[in-house]
Give the backbone structure.
Amino acid sequence: MKDIEFKSSTQKFKYRVNGVIINNNKLLTLKMKNNISYCLPGGHVELGEDSKSAILREMLEEIGTPVSIVKELAIVENFYLDKNNFQTHEISFYYVVNPDNFDKISLPKYEREENDKGEVKIHNFEWLDISMLEDYDFRPEFLKEKLIDKNYNFEHIIKK
């Protein structure tokens, strides 16, 4: 299937899903190759796919175990300049999810390989203490604040 992502010579659009996995007041985060910041596991929604199906698929691909959806946490319309100077418009759905098998993801730090449509990606996962998120370059910023405040109410956020 084809990811919902397209770009012009100066602009880019992305439609993504992100999984929020919390265990013992820690958040499962990852650093992808060449990234200095921490982010959430997730990925692009594919053409013809709804966001709930996409989060279930992406979590299985990235963390290696099925998940169940607990609740929708946020829909974010984000407008920003990316590292390649593309004016980016991103729509992201954030879901709180529970893994079926915590044993597969329970190490404090671990590495996992994903074959993403023929491209091998190395994911470096790390559990970060939510109360210490301010000490990390974790993105998106709005989620850092939301989790530290224990605000699990649904929000539709527009960031320009």
Q: What stands out?
A: DSSP finds two helices and ten strands in the chain. The radius of gyration is 15 Å. The mean pLDDT is 92. The domain at 5-159 is CATH 3.90.79.10 (Nucleoside Triphosphate Pyrophosphohydrolase).
